[in-house]
Amino acid sequence: MTSARQKIDYNDVVQHRNVAFNLDEAKIPRYWLDKDPWLTHYMNAIFCNVPRGERFVMKATTKQLDKISDPSIRKAAIAFIRQEGSHAKAHDGLNKVLASQGLPIKNAGMMVDAIFSAYDRYLPDVMKFAFAATGEHFTATLSAAMLENPELWDDTPEDVAALAFWHFVEEVEHKSVSFDVYKDTCGEGAYSYAVLMATLGLGVSTLFTAAHLSWIYLLVKDKQITNVRSAAKTAKKLLFSPGIFTKTFVSEVVPFLSPKFHPWDNDNRFMINVWKEKYDETGDPVQAYHAFRQWHAAQNGSTYSPNRGSEKVAAKTNVQAIA
Ligand SMILES: [Fe+2]
Ligand SMILES: [Fe+2]
């Protein structure tokens, strides 16, 4: 049964998928995202911290499993844990390849790693559970921002892009699970709301800051910190157009502050349907990625081909932008 808080029916909504990627070190350029050092290292900084974050939320969710009263949420939570396990493993693989290219991925993730270890050791369980609900909101909003702007990935090797978009799709697919698990196990009153808000403050002041320091560290180590041109280009993309950072960490914080917030208040499942249909048909995340890109381009009056990326169609008049 679907509770009023839950907003969507969980039947078959969250699925674990077995995927594999051909991450060939020789085919991954150093600046693999938009051919841009600052933007690539922004994503490297996120990716190097992904496995630790995934394992933290998996552990928190596993601890709550036996306390979940709604069987449909419990079923979704089990699929969520399996999905996050696969994300951690796939990113471990990608991080290994990036490290083999000389990037100090391990050192870049040390601060976030230390913060998660401190969380593990000192936070009460209720805050760990709230952290999973809060963190998943931001991974889902970052993923949605990327799904809305896939042109940034035009120059990325297809297996790296396919890995990232598989992860983005599943983050949107399971975006409400931790939140519903938290509400189911910790209640919906003033106390659970206060803990959620305290966790948001803690996460922003520690993890968010540390992840951005990982970015600076990678830029310094790669001698790109003084690349003003790349910094300006990336600042524009993160802050203004398309505004990946602004959408994820500024505008999406506001709705989260409402005591009535639920992740599916913004029902953006339409963005992941084409990917899911193609994956169900082929079992191939690379084909699913290209199908998503073609669908997205058509929605925006562009064309997309796997070899050439996206191109604007000048004469197209019936442009339907993705909200
Ligand atoms: Fe994930
Ligand atoms: Fe997630």
UniProtKB/TrEMBL annotation:
The keyword Transmembrane applies. It comes from Zhongshania arctica. The chain crosses the membrane at residues 193-220. This is Metal-dependent hydrolase. GO terms for molecular function: hydrolase activity. Keywords: Hydrolase, Membrane, Transmembrane, Transmembrane helix. InterPro entries: UCP07580. It comes from the Bacteria.
